[in-house]
Specification:
The complex is a heterodimer of chains A (about 425) and B (about 625). Chain A is built from 15 helices and five strands. By secondary structure, chain A is mostly helical. In chain A, the strands form two sheets. A three-stranded antiparallel sheet of chain A has the order 3-4-5, with helices on one face. Chain A is globular, with a radius of gyration of 23 Å. The termini of chain A are far apart. Chain B is of the alpha+beta class and about 625 residues long. Chain B has 24 helices and 21 strands. In chain B, α11 packs across α13. Classes of the chains: A mainly alpha (about 425), B alpha+beta (about 625).
């Protein structure tokens, strides 16, 4: 006998286009979900002190995850065509906000990074990251764009440089680096000539090596060989070498004139919130926490290092050291593996995607996630200066999690539609 | 893909190095928490007078700290209580109070807790003897603020106090550490950031007993940056004369029992009649001397006051109040200078034009406004009216000017406006307007005769001694209104200048008066002091031409306040002085002699005290 259900009692069905079920990418969704679970568990532990349990952070972290899931769904269903059409406008708006925050933002440790409206914090640099991915993808996807032409390259570099400089002005070095960081894989994807990329990256490498004559010399020799093997004229090589010699001498001259405390303060000036005393104390404590975890860790909630002095950041920028202390090498390797899987799968999606915009978008998002993960983990391990970047999907912090979830939504969106033109 | 793979591989390698290869080493560091951060304290900048005399410097002293991380004390609260119990009598402190303090500090951070400072040798010896039984206790030296002459310049210098728990909680940049001293008043507060410098940090590895073994090699230490020195505009000679003159005033008996205790604590030598004096250079706005009474010894705050001592301070006549900048008084007849300028500018008075003569009072409305001289002055011209301070003359000027016209001139002369001096918590004065009365009393309720009272500086008019002095400067220098300042130079410990007041512009406006009218006022003020009939004769210094004005302000709470403003020499003004002495009588007899001593110290230091003021001792000066 059929049960008759009155029409009015029938639940409305949410109509999900069939393609979402057919092409749903479990690799992306599952790795991200696992990272979120690791994050929630670790945030609980990091804010849980034996004699002072603070559940507030944990509850707020769940609220943030929920809000993030809504952003994820939104970006999942908004057609990519719409993102493409509005990408330049979004880029323009985000630049305006980056300008505004420099004059009207809330000041914190001498840096202006966000707007505070009651309990809501709005950080324009987060929007700018997504805006740059979208607009650069749209620009590079143009049919006649050729990055070996200087004019096209200049436009692309200007698009990347503008938000980078504005965020550097805040100042926030770590976040500023995210723009070139996410753009580099996109430029490679779009076919930038390897020599051009090499020339662009070389000043950064040279500045890192500025203290070691030998390493610097080896780098210059390698560069010379690369130039000689390429089809560029010897004039370029000459200019390149002279410019680098000038850069090295200039940088050494500037550094030599600084007092030791000034050097430390400049490091903390580049990112004042990262280490208020400016001496790498947090970095050391982080390494102690990570290293003392050993192979299998001290056990969940058993970390002792987290109760120490760098407490304000341990559920945020230094959360990876809590993972390392409590779960050891095993736990860290799992987290790294999850990030690796997410990145490789993302690149795979980008390669399969038949729509050039979607393909570039996927690569940019992968770049964004990977930049943050790699720099953050390198920072907790003492391979990188303390810059104050959070770890995607794991760190506590609403705005950043929202950005990451929105980016993941777009990535899944690309994955679902990767066989459409 | 290859690049990503290499990067992830590199991270994994580093991870393996840290956790697998070096795991045991880090585990040891983590378990024993062997690395400690040691604060390298920046020395506070010194304070000098304009000639390089030291007003405040630093001196090594002993202090005692308690480190609860000591293995004997760690997680052993009864043992901590024993230590506190043993410490309290040696340090002369209340045991329960000390225990509460330790408990609060324990919750805040794990660093060594500062217990007491400025220990005597005797106390240090007692502690050293018992060191065996006092685990975690350490005696160390620190540089402590020293004020070589005790109470000298105390209100201007201010004092330091231990940083409070609230301050520490709101100090996000971690510039301060528990037990640090921070400026609480005066220059020490105003220039806290300049004087303080920046603490450095060193990393030390400590052994199981909390003793330093060596500096941690992996981290560079940051040396402390000492604070900048401050050279004040104060001239110690003038300041000394000013303070001596105030201390020489007749004593007023203490009115409350608390005052006696406060006096014994704070002001061991002289309770002092409440009074204030400011001396400025009329050309530059530099403050040459600034003093207030009763005074206090800033060193007393370094050791910290007990609750009773604080209460006693509240009870007494507020010795911490800087009466020169933070107290406003009715200016009395000194205000007639402004009334004169307004009257001249508005054409109400002129040198040749008189008003109805003074018979000792002036009838207006349903009451008689009295002149201070009950016998009356008779008919006077402008110059004599100011010189003899005839109230009836000024009642008539005020009546014709009206409340608002006086108010307008006062506003343009910025006489009641905060001067913006570089000292904290300056108070502004008040010259009421019709609007002011209506705001308080209701529409149309401005009382009749207000203008008469305002014209002679009574009624609601209130000015600080600093405002009076700045106005005197403007009259003396031809009308330039200056911003008073006490910081002459900020310089590095090696004497290189970092900021120089001489390079800045201190002009903030101009008196609303023509040069001709200003000269008339100057002439009248000179007669106040130099004429035999003038009220300010006791301010004469040898043959130097002095211009001034006396004031005797009625005080609803007690005796009259005595006031005096002056500047000298008239032909080339180098100093302007304002004096207020609370509840002590006439301006001419009480306040003018104080100013006289300051003028003499600055302009004629070679004259003996008797030579300087022969005239005043020969003649009995009468009048307000």
């Amino acid at each position: 006998m059929r049960v008759l259900v009155p029409f009015s009692l029938r639940l409305p069905r949410i109509v999900v286009p069939r393609v979402y079920r057919q092409r749903w990418d479990w690799w992306l969704a599952a790795t991200a979900l696992l990272l979120l679970v690791v994050g929630a568990i670790t945030v609980y532990s990091a804010t849980h002190l034996p004699d002072n349990p603070r559940h507030g952070y944990f509850i707020r972290h769940f609220v943030n995850i929920f809000v993030g899931l809504m952003a994820f769904s939104l970006c999942l269903f908004v057609p990519l065509r719409l993102w493409e059409d509005w990408s330049f406008a979004l880029y323009g708006v985000s630049i305006v906000f980056l300008l505004l925050v420099l004059v009207a933002g809330s000041e914190n440790y001498g840096a202006r990074r966000w707007f505070q409206m009651g309990p809501v914090v709005f950080q324009p640099s987060e929007v700018a990251k997504l805006a740059l991915v979208g607009s650069l993808a749209r620009f590079l996807a143009g049919k006649r764009i050729d990055l070996s032409r200087p004019a096209h390259l200049a436009i692309a570099l200007a698009m990347i440089g503008l938000p980078t400089l504005l965020v550097l002005k805040q100042p926030d070095m770590g976040t500023a680096g995210a723009f070139p960081g996410l753009a580099m894989p996109m430029l490679i994807w779009a076919g930038i000539p390897w020599m051009t990329l090499f020339i662009l990256v070389s000043p950064v490498v040279a500045l890192i090596l500025v203290h070691h004559w030998l390493a610097w010399g080896v780098f210059m020799a390698v560069s010379t060989v690369a130039f000689l093997r390429s089809r560029l004229s010897h004039l370029f090589l000459g200019i390149f070498l002279v410019a680098h010699l000038g850069l090295k001498i200039g940088a050494e001259h500037v550094i030599a004139q600084l007092e030791p405390y000034q050097k430390a303060r400049i490091e903390s000036f580049l990112d004042p919130t990262a280490d208020p005393t400016g001496a790498g104390y947090q970095g050391l404590q982080s390494r102690i926490a990570l290293g003392s975890g050993g192979a299998h860790g001290k056990g969940y909630l058993q970390g002792s290092q987290k109760a120490l002095a760098y407490l304000p950041m341990q559920h945020n920028d230094f959360i990876f050291s809590v993972v390392g202390e409590e779960w050891g090498f095993l736990g860290c390797a799992v987290v790294l593996g999850l990030f690796g899987a997410l990145v490789f799968r993302g690149l795979h999606v980008g390669r399969q995607c038949r729509n050039p915009f979607g393909s570039l978008l996927a690569v940019g998002i992968v770049g964004l996630i990977f930049y943050h993960a790699a720099v953050n983990i390198a920072m907790t391990m003492g391979l990188f200066p303390v810059t104050g970047l959070p770890l995607p999907f794991i760190s506590y912090g609403g705005t950043f999690l929202l950005t990451m979830m929105a980016a993941l939504g777009q990535l899944e969106n690309v994955a679902v539609h990767r066989f459409e033109y | 893909m290859l690049i990503v793979g290499i990067l992830i591989g590199a991270l994994l390698l580093r991870l393996a190095w840290l956790q697998l290869a070096q795991g045991a080493y880090f585990r040891r560091l983590s378990e024993e928490n062997r690395i400690d951060r040691e604060v390298l304290r920046a020395e506070r900048g010194r304070i000098f007078d304009r000639n390089g005399e030291v007003l405040a410097d630093n001196f090594p002293m002993y202090r005692v700290t308690l480190d609860l991380r000591d293995p004997m004390l760690k997680k052993n609260l009864p043992r901590v209580a024993e230590v506190v119990q043993a410490l309290a009598p040696i340090l002369g402190r209340d045991e329960t109070e000390l225990a509460a303090e330790v408990e609060r500090a324990r919750k805040r951070s794990s660093r060594p807790i500062p217990i007491s400072r400025s220990l005597s040798f005797d106390q240090v010896a007692q502690l050293e003897e018992r060191m065996e039984r006092l685990p975690g206790v350490a005696v160390e030296t620190e540089a402590v603020r020293r004020y070589p002459e005790g109470r000298f310049v105390c209100h201007l210098l201010g004092y330091l106090g231990e940083v409070s728990e609230d301050d520490l909680a709101s100090d996000k940049e971690e510039r301060y550490h528990p037990g640090d001293l921070v400026g609480r008043a005066g220059i020490e507060k105003q220039y806290e950031a300049t004087l303080r410098g920046q603490d450095g940090v060193a990393f030390v590895e400590v052994d199981a007993y909390g003793r330093r073994t060596h500096y941690f090699p992996e981290l560079k230490s940051i040396p402390a940056e000492p604070g900048s020195d401050l050279v004040l505009t104060i001239d110690a000679r003038v300041q000394r004369a000013a303070e001596a003159a105030l201390d020489g005033l007749p004593r007023r008996p203490a009115r409350s029992p608390g005052a006696a205790l406060a006096a014994s604590v704070i002001d061991t030598t002289a309770p002092g009649t409440p009074a204030a004096i400011v001396a400025m250079d009329p050309e530059t706005g530099e403050v040459l001397a600034l003093a207030s009474r009763p005074a206090f010894d800033p060193s007393a705050f370094l050791r910290g006051l007990t609750r009773e001592e604080w209460r006693a301070l509240d009870d007494a006549s507020h010795p911490l109040l800087n009466r020169a900048t933070q107290a406003a008084y009715p200016p009395g007849s000194t205000f007639k200078c402004l009334t004169t300028l307004a009257g001249l500018e508005e054409g109400i008075i002129a040198p040749g034009r008189g008003f109805s003569g003074c018979g000792g009072g002036y009838a207006y409305g349903n009451r008689v406004f009295r002149c201070w001289k009950s016998g009356g002055h008779g008919s006077l011209g402008l110059l004599d009216a100011l010189a003899r301070s005839c109230d009836v003359y000024y009642y008539q000027v005020g009546l014709q000017l009206g409340v608002d016209r006086i108010g307008r001139y006062a506003a343009r002369a910025k006489i009641a406006e905060k001067t913006g001096i570089d000292l904290p918590q300056e108070r502004g004065g008040l010259v009421p307007t019709t609007q002011w009365y209506e705001d308080r009393l209701g529409k149309g309720r401005a009382y009749k005769g207000a203008a008469l009272n305002i014209a002679i500086g009574q009624g609601e008019v209130l000015l600080t001694p600093l405002e009076l002095c700045r106005f005197t400067c403007a009259v003396a220098n031809g009308g330039r209104i200056l911003k008073p300042h006490v910081s002459l130079r900020v310089q590095g410990p090696d004497g290189t200048a970092r900021r120089d007041a001489a390079e800045e512009d201190w002009d903030v406006g101009h008196l609303p008066a023509s040069q001709a009218n200003l000269r008339l006022l100057q002439e009248a003020m000179e007669r106040v002091v130099m004429d035999n009939g003038g009220t300010g004769g006791r301010a004469r210094v040898g043959a130097i031409r002095v211009g001034g004005k006396t004031g005797t302000a009625q005080n609803p709470h007690g005796d009259d306040h005595a006031l005096f403003i002056c500047y000298a020499p008239v032909e080339d003004p180098r100093i302007a002085v304002a004096v207020v002495v609370e509840e002590s009588g006439h301006g001419g007899s009480v306040a003018a002699p104080v100013a006289q001593q300051v003028l003499q110290a600055y302009l004629a230091p070679d004259l003996g005290p008797e030579q300087g003021s022969t005239l005043s001792s020969m003649m009995a000066w009468e009048g307000d």
